[in-house]
Amino acid sequence: MSAPQPTIPALVNFGGQPVHAPAGEPLLRAEHVTVRFGGVVAVRDISLAVRPGEIVGLIGPNGAGKTTLFNALTGFVRASEGRVTFAGRDITHLQPQVRAKMGMARTFQVERPFEDLSVLENVLVAAFLNRRGRAAENHAYDVLERVGLADRAAQPASQLNLARRRRLEIAKALALEPRMLFLDESIAGLNPPAQQEMVALVRQLAQSGLGIVMVEHIMHVIMSLSDHVICMAFGELLAEGDPKHVAAHPDVIRAYLGDDDD
Ligand SMILES: Nc1ncnc2c1ncn2[C@@H]1O[C@H](COP(=O)(O)OP(=O)(O)OP(=O)(O)O)[C@@H](O)[C@H]1O
């Protein structure tokens, strides 16, 4: 009889099916990206591609390099080597705000709305980048509808609970009318019903055609949402592929559980 395979319940018992992986030309490509901070190699030789409507999940233990890779894709840190392209254009050396204007919007792990402004005004600040007057206002309302915050439009951002603050963060990103959305731990810290709502929202956004890259620690969430998962450890690629493949990969199991000799 063969020895039983090790399993990680949080990795293998994820509910729901990932959205069918969209085909077609990638919108975003990272090729052999390396990021160094002095002597530390935070990301080493990582490549990925994201198509419209596709959700790519970045996972890995603490310090794996997920945030650094995410920041290299969005322009918040400089890639030391490699290339990033968006819609066929080399963006490796472009500033974050230029990337945002081109259609790459991100959220931040610690959300920072203008606390004294209303929910609508917070979204308007972003909507004004591309539109003026009534058109900006209508767009901001549409975005609030899309994320389920329309009934909170007049409320000061300071009064929102965590789940709604996370939605506001997504609304601000959507107000830029992006083609790609980068979500930095939008679901961690929420209670299970709020997690489910956020999962449904992210799925809807992908189904509307947005390409999505998400960093998330909650394994069952990323496994149920992602079309493609990239698992990193110590800055390097450990495994990638569809969620089932990655969850069953011996190196991934080892990275999360540790070796017996560790
Ligand atoms: N600005 C920086 N200067 C120097 N070292 C950094 C910097 N940012 C990250 N690092 C280092 O790079 C490595 C990867 O860190 P990173 O934050 O990208 O990992 P992570 O996978 O996002 O971790 P976590 O899940 O804990 O957020 C770590 O060793 C970290 O200490």
TrEMBL record:
Keywords: ATP-binding, Nucleotide-binding, Transport. GO terms for molecular function: ATP binding; ATP hydrolysis activity; L-isoleucine transmembrane transporter activity; L-phenylalanine transmembrane transporter activity; L-valine transmembrane transporter activity. The keyword ATP-binding applies. The lineage of its organism: Bacteria, Thermotogati, Deinococcota, Deinococci, Deinococcales. One of its GO terms (cellular component) is plasma membrane. Residues 28-259 form the ABC transporter domain. One of its GO terms (biological process) is L-isoleucine import across plasma membrane. This is ABC transporter ATP-binding protein.
